[in-house]
Write the structure tokens for this entry.
Amino acid sequence: MDISDNGQKLDPQWVDAANNVCVVLHGCRNASTVAQHFVRAGWGSRSSSWHGYEVETHWCQLEIDPMENADVLLNGVVDPQRVDELAGVLNRIGMKYSLELHKEDNTLNREIQAR
């Protein structure tokens, strides 16, 4: 996958924030393909491990890692007011997913399922 520095960097207010979003893309085996979708949406991307990627824009930063069960895990920080925009990017990927948004105290704030 091509790595892109064209996206916007995460706003400073989110840099030290605790992870508040977790997404599982069901039936997806390739983290690179997922990262490519984010790059096409204007996000920046970089390799973070042998098989993982980090993608970011000014309101969200996510680690993308393949899981052993043929799913891909995305987790990181998102501006809670923009979680619907994140869901929009995920919807354009066209796969089933489960998204959980957590509050600062780690309680579930919102859940979005795409089937």
Notes: The chain has a mean pLDDT of 91. Helices lie at 12-15, 31-40, 83-93. The radius of gyration is 13 Å. DSSP finds three helices and seven strands in the chain.
